[in-house]
Amino acid sequence: MKFVDEASILVVAGDGGNGCVSFRRENISRKAARTAVMAATAATSGWKPMKT
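RESULT FIELD:
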């Protein structure tokens, strides 16, 4: 005996929304990132390992 299954699948995409900000490139973003890295480096450079 053979069985035949059937299924209906409805796929609907969204309307796209307002876009994605992660692909936006600006000069100020790069400057801010460099400043954050320099600040983090300066903050961690003063740390000394503790003896346990």
